[in-house]
Each structure stands twice: as structure tokens, then as C-alpha cells.
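Forgive a beginner's question, but would it be possible to get any protein sequence you like and the C-alpha cells describing how it folds?
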Amino acid sequence: MANRMKNQVYIADCIDRQGDIKRMTGDESGALSDFRISLDMKLKSLDGDNLSIGDTYHKIGRAYFSQKEYNKALLMYQKALDIRIRKLGDDVIVAQSYHNIGLAYSNLGMLDDAINMNKKSLEINLAKLDNDHYHVTTSYDFMGNLYKKKGAYKEALAVFRKSLEIRLQRLGSNDVSVASSYRNIGLLHRSAKQNNQAIRMLEKAIEILTFNYGENHRNIANIYNEVATCYSHLHQKDVAANIRRKADSIRKILSHSPQKNSHRVFQPLSHVSRQSEGTGIQSKNYLKAYNRAIKQGKRRNNLIRAMFVGPRNVGKSSIIRVFTQQRLSGHDSPTQVVEWSERMIKINAYDIYDGKFCAMSEILEKNVIASIEESPQVTKELDDNPNFKKQIIETPVLNSKDAKEDRKYAKIWDFGGHSVYHVTHRPFMSANNIYILVFNITQNINDHVKTRHGLLLTTNYLQAMQEWLTSIISGHRDPSDISINIDGVPVKYSLPIVILVASHGDSLDGKEDGNRRFKQFEQDLISYMPTYKRNIYSSGIIFNCKPEDNNLATISQRRECCRRLHLIIKEFVLSLFFIRNPIPIRWYIMATILNTSFHRYENQESSSVIDQIRAARVRDIMTMQDVTLLAQDYTLYENHK
């Protein structure tokens, strides 16, 4: 089309995209050639300060960097930076240029220049983004590694700790990026010959990675070797040898496992077929089984959204922290539209039977692998290839009884309470969700909503709750009823289900005061909105989320609130008829791709084709066309249904 229009700039943009594709497939030389052609065309057609020219300079710099031609990369990055500064000023794109220039300086051994560039990048990110944005933690990590290379261990430790603190507050103690921070600190201690401190940090990293990926993961093996080195430095040779054997055992298991990728996501068939001489996912047999399962495989739905909603500043995020076993923070920032897009994709999920939290990626993969194994269309394939079947069954994801049991999981979502955000909530709402509606137990229904700074809004709690309930129920009503028996009395409810939960239990004058206030708020709410009575379940749960209050009685009360809420969610989930509906396996594979893609920010060194495709094609907000194109890339698309 660009050729038909004879538009040189459009043609150059198309050549840029062609170069991007070549980079994703590992053809750096071809990409560099395309970027140079594009740059020449743009320089002839556009003003020299055009941002599009700066973007192409940046692409050329990245191509040179990938080829380890750091001086040439530096020159291109600097040209891009000059244009971006003139056009954008202190913008996050300028911060990106500073960061990449810092990377080039670092690889050239010019550490002071690299530190200076990273400081400029960090300064802009702190001014333009939230202080706990992932770009900020990335800058802190890079700075820490630069200081470490210089031998400035005290300065390195300070910035690594800043990164760790942000991740703990934002993501909780079990996120893989927290493990990355612990590992950075551990390796720093090792470099400073503080081996005991290093071991403690590295073992924390192992614990988190084991929680997310199971015991057999290449990063866990790598960290075991790092721990072993520390013990060797402490002259504990036998301990070091035992730990190295653990690492070797993991690598041996992985060498026979179909899961080669760090996040164990299924690869697109075009990539699989190029490697069809291997074993497991790369084998011809598995390719056939996978292909048939995509077309015909189905798996019963075992995922449901549990969405925490309510007026602003009522404590939704704090309750989620307690419920998901994370540390409370006294200075949480307000939830922005949907609580941080990466966090939303890396959703907290837990087993409704035992209340244990688990990695979303494993839940999805269990469904995919079990569907392939159980599909009648592939049974003969497996029976005819006993060695192949043994590989599939011994896959770590399927090595527990959970893989074949009919497990069910709830995904935790956190919505911002500001009215201006409600329009963004609508696409995510459905009668098939369970909603936890949070209110402030210290406020009456006609009191005005308070901001976190104590300012009174014109909206009162009744109006805010009406807005939420109308948004949840009126547009998503389901004619079906479900019968639930939580406290020994069977009661019928209408879909969607809204569970009423209270916060600010620390401000009450005792249990009776709390019960009275809860009952009064419930009665007032239903009296104003009687048509929603059959949708609302009054839990009587009142959370105390005051960060400073951690005495034994409070901790016990929080645990009981969590246990009670787990039980209520479980009973409702097990009563929902749609949870038994079969879902095509390609949906689970697509969800796996989307879920895994957001690890790209925490795995900057990844260079596999699969990770590059995800990083390029998956965004925080995607149109249906974007999703369709991504599905086609992975040969998962059949039709719009």
C-alpha cells in the first residue's frame, strides 16, 4: 500500500517494521540493513529533527549493541537522544535513551559515564512515573550492578535495597522479581566476601522461585551453584559439594524435560517445527499431539475472577495484601484504574480447596498439558511411543496429583475506586465473576466519602455503593439462581454474587460495635436498593489492616477473616454452573502466552525468539485485532468465535 501511495515515509516505516521482525528472529545483520535503508529514506523526506528519525537511530543502535559493536551503538544512541531531547524534553523516552547509552558505556568499561547516564534516566523516571514503577526498579538494579563493578559495595547495597523495598511493597514477598532483588544483594555480599549474608539472600531467592516454578528450574540450579561457591569460600567443601549435586540434578531433569523455556510457555508451531528433531515440545510426536489438541482439545473451566471493588480509600488494596499473605504497607498509593497493568496480568491466584496461592502460569500449563495427555485423539500417539509418554508424564508440571484433579482457582483483581475509572471497569465485568464489595466500617451510609488526605467529596457512601452495584449487577444480570449453604441454612442467590466485606476494624470499640455497624450498613444498603438483595451476601467480615498493629490477637483475627472469606468464595464457586463448562485448549494456551509475556520486564537478558515476539506483540491494552494477530502468530486462531 505504501508503495502504491508512493509515500517514502510510509515505506520507510514498513521497512523499520520488517527490520524489527528480523531482529525478533535473530537476523541482526538483516535488521541493521533494513534500518539503514529506512534512515536514508527518512533523512531525504523529513526534517532532521523528526522523532521518526530519532526512533530509527535508536533501532540502529540496538542492532549494533546486539552485535557487540558498542562504540557504533553509542553513536546511534546519542543521535537519537539529541533529537528526543529537542522534541520531548524530560520524557520517559528520553530516559530510555539515557539508560541505553549507560548500557553501552558499561560494556565499554566506562563505569563513571554509565553511572552518570543512569542517574539522568532515573531522575526523569522518578519525576514522570510513580516511585515504584518497574522502570525505576530497573534503574536501581542497573545502578547497583555498576557500583558493584566499581567495587563500591556500600553504594550498590543501598540502591539494591531500594529496588527490593519497592518490589516487596508493590508485588508482595512471593513475586519472582523479589527473588531477583534478593539474588542481586546475595551476589553483592559474595563479591564483598560476606558469604554468610550472601547465603541468606540467595536462599530467599531460591524459596521464592521454588514457590513460583517448582523445584526444577534453571535459575534455581544457577543460584544453588552460587550458594555452593559461598560455602567453598567458607571452607565448607562437603556442604558445597552437596549443593552442587542439587544443581546438577535439576539440570539433568531439565535436559529430559519438554519445558526448555524459563517460563515454560508453549512455543508457536512455526518455531516448534524448526526444532522437530529434539525431545518433548520440540519432538515431532509432541508437535502432532499439540496440533491435534489445539484443534479439538477442551478442558473444564477452573478459573474464576474474584474482584475487589468499592469506593475510594476504603482499604481494598490493604485487604488484598492480607488475603494474599503479603506485607502491609502504610503508604500504598491509590490504585490506578486497574492496579498496575503488569500486576493485573500476573494475577494472584489461589486454590479454593486449600487456600494455597500458586503461580498463574502453572495453573494454565496444567490445563494445557493435561488436555494434550487426556485427549482421545492423542491417546494412540502416546501408547505407540512409550518413551515419549514417559517424558510427558514426568514433566514437573504434571508430577503432582493436582494436574489431573479437578482443581478450581480464584484470581484476585483490584479495581480503583475513583468514579472516573468506572468506565474502564466495564469490559472486565460479568455475571460469571464473584465480587467482594468493600466498605469502611467506621462510616455511615450517608457520610461523604473521604480521600486518603481527609478531604470530603460531594459523593456519599450510598451514592458510591449504588454506582458500584449498578455497574456490577444491572448490566450483567443472569436469570439463573444458585443455592448456597454456608452457615447450615440453604439460601438462594441471584447472579452475579456480591460479597459484602468491611475494612478499618482497628477503629472499632470491640466486636459488638463492629457487628452492629456491619448489620446497620447492610440494612441501609438493601433498603435503598431492594432489587439487589438476592445478589448480596453479607459476610460479617471486618478486616483490621492497620500496618502498625501486628500483635498476636490482630494476626489471629486477620487469619480468621481470611479463612472465612476463603470459605465463602469456595462455596459460591462450587455452586456456579458455568465453572463446569468446557473451554478449548487454545484459549488456555493464549492465556499462557499473555500471562508469561509480562515477565519481560524482569528478564531483560532473555533473547529467545519466543520472548522477543511476546515483548513486541503483547501490550497492556490490546484491541481484538491485536489479539487475533497474536493468535495467528501462534497458529491458535480458528475464527472470531
Q: What stands out?
A: The first strand starts at residue 298 and ends at 300. Residues 552-575 form the longest helix (24 residues). The chain has 27 helices and 13 strands.
